[in-house]
Amino acid sequence: MVDADVLSRRLLALNDALRQLTSRESMISAEALANDAALQAAVERWLQIAIEACIDSAYHVIADRGLLPPDSARQAFESLASEGLLPKDLAARLGRAAGLRNILVHDYTRVDRALLASIVHTDLGDLRAFGAAVGALLVIL
């Protein structure tokens, strides 16, 4: 059974990270990130938390449903799509977000400031959409 407390905590973390990013959206640009190391660190961390909350939630739902454990976060989102819990195009975009999370955590010397700024301005909706899909699972419990 889906543990509502586990999913709720992940969704709260997701929402908080998205709120932090959105509240500073107007001040986030590649140039601002290059000139303000603390801002860049904050943006990286909030994105990492938001994406990680989605990944953790996906794994939790997969385990709850008794699905085959995925080999990667990208595969976890694909698995949810194949179960009809996510649109396939959203799952593909979330798979790319998981790739960004891996760069933020493991290959942090390769972080592209322009990409970070672009994600904050154009791609947070995918994380929100995932949160809404998982939130819908909580409503039916």
**What's the main sheet like?**
none
What name does the CATH topology carry?
Four Helix Bundle (Hemerythrin (Met), subunit A)
CATH superfamily: bsu32300-like
Radius of gyration: 15 Å
Strand proportion, as a percent range, falls in: under 5%
> Count of DSSP helices?
7
CATH architecture name: Up-down Bundle
Distance between the termini: 9 Å
* Average pLDDT number: 94
Order of helices and strands: HHHHHHH
User: How many distinct beta strands?
Assistant: 0
Q: What is the CATH first-level class name?
A: Mainly Alpha
Shape annotation: globular
Number of domains: 1
Alpha-beta classification: mainly alpha
Q: Return residue spans where pLDDT drops below 50 for at least 5 consecutive residues.
A: none
- The helical percent reads over 70%
Description:
- It is a single chain.
- The protein has about 140 residues and is mostly helical.
- It has one domain (about 5-140): Up-down Bundle (Four Helix Bundle (Hemerythrin (Met), subunit A)).
- About 75% of the residues lie in helices and about 0% in strands.
- The chain contains seven helices and no strands.
- The protein has helices spanning about 5-25, 30-35, 35-65, 75-80, 90-105, 115-120, 125-140.
- α3 (about 35-65) crosses α4 (about 75-80).
- The longest helix has 28 residues, at about 35-65.
- It starts with a helix and ends with a helix.
In brief:
With 141 residues, this protein is mainly α.
